[in-house]
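Why do we care about 3D structure at all? Because function follows from shape, and shape follows, mostly, from sequence. That is the central idea of this module. The next example makes it concrete: a single protein chain, its amino acid sequence, and then its structure expressed as tokens.
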Amino acid sequence: MQQNLVAIYSFIEITSARKFREVVHLVFVGNGKLSAYISTLEANLKKTYTDESVKEVVTALKAINYNYKIGDQGLVDEASGPVYEAVAMLEYRPANLDELNAAIAAGEAKVDKAESPDWFTPDSWAAYKDAYNAAVDVRDADPAYTALEQDIVDEAAQALADATAALEYVD
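And the structure:
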């Protein structure tokens, strides 16, 4: 059976403490699976990277001549260059800040309603202020958090929501 070239990706190379780079490896798979594989790859990449940068990877994959034979490794290596270049240019999708912004707004609304921090117990106020400041730091981070770091954003939102709910009024 004739075999076609297809790209398989995996997270294998750490490029910095906060970023991971996906590297594309070219391998041979059975004929007829290429189109479905590229569609699956595209959907998976779009979870983490911007649509525009994923489009470049897909365009590079579709431009490859997939009729190489297993002995054509030199041609395969040459054809993979544009794919590697497109992968290197992938841009991370920004983290979703909706829940974090909602938690910040809810905390601010509760505090504004009280008119003064003196209305809350010192311990609950201190915990709230710490969580609030951490949430604002996450929201305003430069560089901004990416989709790979969504858990950090979600944890900050949850911590602030918990601290806001735990604010105790002074008797």
